[in-house]
Amino acid sequence: DAKTTQPNSMESNEEEPVHLPCNHSTISGTDYIHWYRQLPSQGPEYVIHGLTSNVNNRMASLAIAEDRKSSTLILHRATLRDAAVYYCILRDDQTGANNLFFGTGTRLTVIP
Amino acid sequence: ETGVTQTPRHLVMGMTNKKSLKCEQHLGHNAMYWYKQSAKKPLELMFVYSLEERVENNSVPSRFSPECPNSSHLFLHLHTLQPEDSALYLCASSHPDGPNTEAFFGQGTRLTVV
Fold first, then answer.
1. Staple partner for B95: which of A78, B2, B47, B101, CB 3.0–4.6 Å?
2. A40 contact B CB<8A
């Protein structure tokens, strides 16, 4: 399974935009880029995913580099409820049931 | 509420006990997963079921025994556990049809082995 690299932690001020980076230099052409987040004492929660084009949904935006070797999760206005660990994961169709393998993620702290 | 329900939420068991964790989803998914999350460690994929057939077993000790009687239910049977097995156990479900789908996680069972 292709690996991703994320900073261990980031801080943001409340109501400011947050850009969470992810490097995935060994990504293959069929890997989808998924983002999940895990709030304290909860299971992971799906945020967004994409393949090549930038994606937007009600939670966030995903900007994917042209060579697909990196991506950025964008939270447009951070709130205190966005404090969580954010995981960038590559999901392919080569492994059984398209398994999700989690790394250590980025712990986002939102400062009031 | 994600649509994936895990019970119990908390469990304390002795090393000689036998207990089971339960996971249920009615999302129409037919892939289900067990993950283990120990303190300060990434989530570890333990077992994967696709269409009620086990497709992955990531070198998990035999004291953990999964069961998937149908596509909506997943169990993790526990026996003679060790204190180091104390962790958050998470269940997830998704469609196995391709990587262009999302997974839904339950709230987890916090297991303490004494």
1. B101
2. no
Q: Which amino acid is at A44?
A: P
B97 Cβ neighbours under 8 A, 6+ residues apart: none
Report chain B residues whose CB lies below 8 A from the CB of A49: 100, 102
CA A77 to chain centre: 16
Q: What pLDDT, in 10s, does the model give residues B36-84?
A: 999 878 899 999 898 788 877 778 999 999 999 998 999 999 999 999 9
The Cα–Cα gap between A17 and A40 comes to: 21
CA–CA gap between residue B85 and residue B111 (Å, rounded): 8
Could you say which of A46, A101, A102 has the minimum Cβ distance to residue B102?
Answer: A46
Cα gap A88→A50, rounded to integer Å? 11
Give pLDDT tens digits for B12-21.
Answer: 999 999 999 9
User: What are residue A93's DSSP bridge partners?
Assistant: none
Q: Does A42 touch chain B (CB under 8 A)?
A: yes
Can you tell me the distance from the alpha carbon of B47 to that of B66, in angstroms, rounded to the nearest whole number?
7
Which residue of B lies nearest to A105 if distances are taken between CA atoms? Answer: B42
Amino acid type, A79: T
Whole-angstrom distance, CA of residue B63 vs CA of residue B36: 14
Q: Supply B93's token pair.
A: 């479900």
Q: How far is B86 from chain A (nearest CA, A)?
A: 15
